[in-house]
Amino acid sequence: MTLALLNIICLTILLFLWHGPLWQPRKLPGVDRQRPLLIGHRGVRGARPENTLEAFQYALDAGLDGVECDVQRTRDGQLVLVHDLHIAGRAVTSLSHEELLRYDARVPLLEELLQLMTYYPGTLLNVELKVAGLGGYRLIRSSSQAIYRSGEVDRVIVSSFNRFTLLQLRLVAPRLRCGLLIDESTPRFWQGGWLAGWYHVDAVHPHFRKLTPRLMHRYQKRGLTVSTWTVNEDSEVQKALALEVDGIMADDPVALRQAAAAER
Question: Is the whole model's pTM more than 0.90, yes or no?
Answer without folding.
Answer: yes
